[in-house]
Amino acid sequence: MIFGLGLVPITFATGMAIDYGKAMRLQTELNAAADAAALSATSAAMMRQSLATAQAQARVMFQAQTTDLPGLIPLNYADTAQVSVTVTEGTSQVEGFVRTSTVTYRGQSTNSFAGILGKETLTVSGTATAKASTAPDTDFYVLLDASSSMALPTTTAGINFLKSRTVRNGNPDGCAFACHQTNPDNPNIRNSSGQIIDYYTFAHDNGIELRIDAGKHAIRDMVANARSEGASNGAAYRFYLATFDRSANYRELTGATPSADFNYVSSKATTAETIAVQMHGYMYDRQTEHAGSLAKLNAAVTSNPGNGLRTPGDRPKATLFLITDGMRDEEINGRQMGPIAPDQCDAIKARGIRIAVLYTTYTPESINYEAWSVNNVVPRLPEIAPALKRCASDDLFFEVSTDGNISQALAALFQKAVQTSRLTR
Questions:
Q1: Which of 87, 270, 319, 418 is the most buried (most CB within 10 A)?
Q2: Longest dimension (CA), the chain
Q3: What is residue 308's predicted lDDT score, i.e. its pLDDT?
């Protein structure tokens, strides 16, 4: 009897929970439609249109995605109490021309069970806001790590090939790195003329892509992306390219000032190379000086960046792209190894320069066959990524490991750096 008396309220409670769950799923769909509609009014194309056109675009987008949604009582899109779309614009000293789009809806989800109790519907509502600014003029400073460790093949197959072919007396496991030497001395590594060559030349002769190669190709692709992006959003972009290992070897590939000649910048990107070192020469293996190299990059930015708003007295914004495997190895009061120190990153960011970091993962598999590296390098590897993340501004950090696509990773990082439309809800 007790079960029978309790069965009715239990049934209705279960039914109402089902109705509520259905309403929440419907609200999620409506929220997604509102997000898309708000963003559509602040797209690069709509930023060049009038407020009325942008507002109409958002309304059409929302209506197209919400008409005939199962369980939704049809909305009256002309009733501002049910669907409201507003687009406003203004100017900001920091962001320049700013447009804000807001889509608000309020509708009713039909009930299956609660209707028996007189509750025919549940209210579903939400608001989405998107904000966009005109893309600012920007100078991109690209600093590519050209130290010896960036001569690691980009694929597992490449690493295994290089190790298998560089076996020699005293080194039965071969070497994963395509060492660039002025004094190649492995008698097993020769060119077609029988001349002894270094591992760097050997890798290239056999079509093995190294990280330094992938890095310069990724920069070339990023420059092409910038050309397309600038044509779309009207921003003026310039590039400064440099490579580093020891700070004494810091090389400005494009000259001392940023260039707006994309063809010139692309051609200079392809000239990036690691510097050949004399094996077993003085400090031949201390090849990565982050602090001194970043200090030189900081000095290359001769004036503090501005907001890129093209107003009298303003200057372009500035973003540094650092492409590195992140392992510091230099001589300062003895050998210093480990992650990048924060000092120079902080000094650069303090000038208003954003830092984007592409970390080409320094993997244990590339060095764990050699005793010295196992003892001295491998234990420091977990420290690298956190230090580089700290160096980067905001969320401008991307990691790509062996067998990953460095060009795609840099493209994604570039889009993060220049994106101008975002949801603010």
A1: 87
A2: 100
A3: 82
